[in-house]
Write the structure tokens for this entry.
Amino acid sequence: MGDVNVGDKIPLTFFLEDEATGKFVEANVYDADGAEITGSPITMSEVAGGIYEDDSLDMPDTSKVVAKFKAYNEVGLTTLYNAFAGSGTYLRNVGATDVISKLDTIISALTGFSGSFSNVTATIELEPKLNAIIEEVKDVKAIIETDVKITESIKTDVNIETKIKTDTKIKANLEEC
């Protein structure tokens, strides 16, 4: 459902396929070890046309969180609404910028490598190998930077698509009134 940085708000979203409004959706959120995270469970807010959202919970320092959603008929959360339930997984952002920074450090260290060898042959053989390693690390860095750009582009496209769907549902609901 998306990558979330540690400490950022988890953008929980649940959609009732029959677009029912006036329901009460509860989310229980668990970390990668299956323990419920601080602040869970929460009752989500209705947005429009069966869409319920919440962003009150912080992403813990875990590889992922899993949200379990249940829809109820009343505020007391005792009667399930047509047994509507679902789940969603939110992954921790792996910090590509941190990886890129570490690769820069490696490149810098390898590029600035100098040492004295008692054997001139060892120096001659070592230099091309170090240069090859530097080039490989630079290639990996370039791939990660490209992936970050693609991921950001996809996130933007998904956010736009979600907004269009939400706006369309809101417009349809307003037209019904």
